[in-house]
Amino acid sequence: MIPASLKGTDDIWSIPPKWLPSQWEWSNFAALLEQDINGGYFFRSIGVTLIVGVSATFLNLVINILAAYGFARHEFPGKRILWAIFLFTMFVPGITVQITSIQVVTKLNLTNTLFVLILPTAANAYNIFFFRQFYLMIPDSLEESAMLDGANRAQILLKIFLPLSVTPIVVTGVGCFIGHWNSYIWPTLTIVENQDKYSQIMQFVYMLSTNEPRDYGKVVAATLVTMLIPLAVFSVFQKKIVEGVAISGLK
Predict the structure, then answer these.
(1) At what angle do helices 166-181 and 125-136 cross, to 10 degrees?
(2) How far apart are CA 21 and CA 43, in angstroms?
(3) CA angle 8–13–14, rounded 5-degree value
(4) CA-to-CA distance for 141 and 13, rounded, in angstroms?
(5) pLDDT at residue number 211
(6) pLDDT tens per residue, range 96-135
(7) Which range marks the domain in which residue 36 is found?
(8) Are 80 and 71 within 8 A, CB to CB?
(9) Total domain count for the chain?
């Protein structure tokens, strides 16, 4: 990708193919600064996608951790039935309810706003299941000791369960963030009017490839830039991700 991002059009389409460019086209990256597609700009799309990814990840973690703690540590009427319903949703492919989901967000007037990119993914059955299984492994004696010391449920969750669940938080958080960073179909179907304001980075790269079908040097340069943030995220949390894989294997 690196040499391709620095090639001109002639080098990219040359036969036989060339590994290195005959002339280094740094202008491919410079052009991204002022690239305008449907009123949207490349780095604006990166910024908006970052906002969506971070916000959705934070909301996803808060809701799923609270739900998982409730299922793991509380007894309430209808718990088994409700848990079975949650588990059932894990076996339904998301694409099969795509049209229904669009109808729901349309009736709620969420389309063409940032909320349509954030709220629908706030609850995730798999993440709830993942956290619940982890919380079931924490000894009851730890929670009982905290209660004897006068801690309430909120304090137990914040001061005991959350510090112990850093690894699951990182694993699910990274997965959620990368999922939003790479999202294309959902934003394309729900952001149709305000693309200049809310277009996601994958939308922008696709539109760039269709608007300039022969200028693949610029397209590859844009793709290379979009890879930097996911690579940085994986580099920072690499150790915790490996630990999370080991934890999920124990389940």
Answers:
(1) 170
(2) 26
(3) 95
(4) 67
(5) 73
(6) 888 899 999 999 999 988 999 999 988 889 899 989 988 8
(7) 2-248
(8) no
(9) 1
Q: CATH number for the domain including 205?
A: 1.10.3720.10
User: Residue 108 has what pLDDT?
Assistant: 93
Give the pLDDT confidence score for residue 242 in this predicted structure. Answer: 79
Query: What pLDDT, on the 0 to 100 scale, is given for residue 128?
Result: 92
Q: Is the dihedral of CA 130, 136, 139, 145 positive or negative?
A: positive
Identify the pLDDT of residue 92. Answer: 86
Q: Which residues of the chain have pLDDT under 50?
A: 250-251
Burial of 244 per CB tally in 10 Å (0-12, 13-18, 19+): buried
The half-sphere exposure of 163 on its side-chain side, counting CA atoms within 13 A, is 5
Rounded CA gap, 231 and 237, in Å? Answer: 10
DSSP assignments along 42-89, one per residue: HHHHHHHHHHHHHHHHHHHHHHHHHHHHHHHH---TTHHHHHHHHHHH
* Of the candidates 188, 171, 170, 181, the residue with the CA atom closest to the CA atom of residue 225: 181
- Residue 178 has a pLDDT of 93
Residue with tokens 């590994």, as numbered in its chain: 19
The per-residue b/e assignment along 172-208, b for 16 or more CB within 10 angstroms, e otherwise, is: bbbbbbbebbebeebbbebbeeebeebbbbbbbbbbb
pLDDT of residue 236: 87
pTM of the model: 0.85
d(CA 174, CA 234): 8
Distance CA 175, CA 181 (A): 10
User: Taking CA 108 as the corner, what is the angle to CA 89 and CA 63, rounded to the nearest 5 degrees?
Assistant: 45
DSSP string for 189-242: HH-SS-HHHH--HHHHHHHHHHHSTT-HHHHHHHHHHHHHHHHHHHHHTHHHHH
pLDDT for 69: 92
